[in-house]
Amino acid sequence: MPRPSVEAERREQILSAACEVVSELGFKSLRIADVARRAGTSSGTVHYYFDTKTALMRAAFEWNFARSLDRRRDLLQEHADPRQRLRAFVDSYLPGDPETVRAWHVWAELWVEALHDRDLQELNEQVYGEWRRLMASIVRDGQDAGLFRDEDPVVVANALIGMIDGLALQVLLGSRSMTLERMRAVCEQVLSSLTVGSSA
Amino acid sequence: MPRPSVEAERREQILSAACEVVSELGFKSLRIADVARRAGTSSGTVHYYFDTKTALMRAAFEWNFARSLDRRRDLLQEHADPRQRLRAFVDSYLPGDPETVRAWHVWAELWVEALHDRDLQELNEQVYGEWRRLMASIVRDGQDAGLFRDEDPVVVANALIGMIDGLALQVLLGSRSMTLERMRAVCEQVLSSLTVGSSA
DNA sequence: TTGATAACTGACGGGTCCGTCAACCATCGG
DNA sequence: CCGATGGTTGACGGACCCGTCAGTTATCAA
Q: How much is the pLDDT for A2?
């Protein structure tokens, strides 16, 4: 057995680079050579770890998802109050810091790519399912504590997630009528209308 | 002056074909030759009307938008009651019939393309502005009639549009947990929570 | 009929880029 | 020191496709 395996970290480097390039150039314009350069290696090495461009992108999408979850795992433990937990959770999805923006970009590329790719649709299904599960469970906690209105938590979660997706997209597009701050305001408004005894 | 101008209708044919191909294959995989074949003409003719692929796509996006507006223009006159008007408007965006689905596909491709293209961002800004203006004005009508809660109409419109965008995307992705019917249910729920005196 | 122009065609040049491959390097066990 | 194996490299073949262009057809005015 020669040379201690560097496979894990090299894969990581390449996937991270791939996400960066996708975020900057888009899937359509991504070249293997770009990813290689960004990862500080050669195109041959990229192909050594990922047979095809498709395989690379699929792995990059999965990696992007895994990291998104990781970044939020602790967050859910930090707040005992479901209202604050929900707020913090939603807040973590606002496309503010560069890392979150990058993740959103990759995410958006996945969506459009998945429109014509069954495998990626399956991946989206898992991701979306996980996200919805987390959101619905927070809502349920809040309702059990008598803090949120008594609507179907799954419906509420779907509505919130859909809204966040749609708004984030507009923010990412640099819309002047939907800036980060305005998105934050809309979310605040909607969240506070979820809590009991606040019809205005 | 030779041969009566066929420019207008030929452009229309090509743009329509372009939207169909984009919807089926995605922007990334769209070939000029595909559009030509779909339009029943040659690649040379496509280039006769549109200098570059980029110009073709930009025009196709604009055309898609114009048609979307046309399809809904009458709809807003049909219902005197703002509640029904809002419901019909939202309903017209549900990705049910093939034409609406196709329009959504094109729309989604525009989004992702626009992430890296200032010109397309500007186009998105116009479209989104128009949509938001329509939606907000319905909400305002409803509030004036004392039918809707007294929240900022623009915030409500943004929230609704964001939600519709996000949900439609999941439906288009063939999500098992976000089907057309479930999207319809979520929209119903949210819309009815807008009307006064309905906290459940 | 003839010339002019709009509309159209499809072959092809040229650029791009994926994936392959032959060669190379580094590190280990024996 | 040697062979084996994991890891790496970059050149290149070949496929793909945009945009050009020389040539063709259709329609009109004179």
A: 38
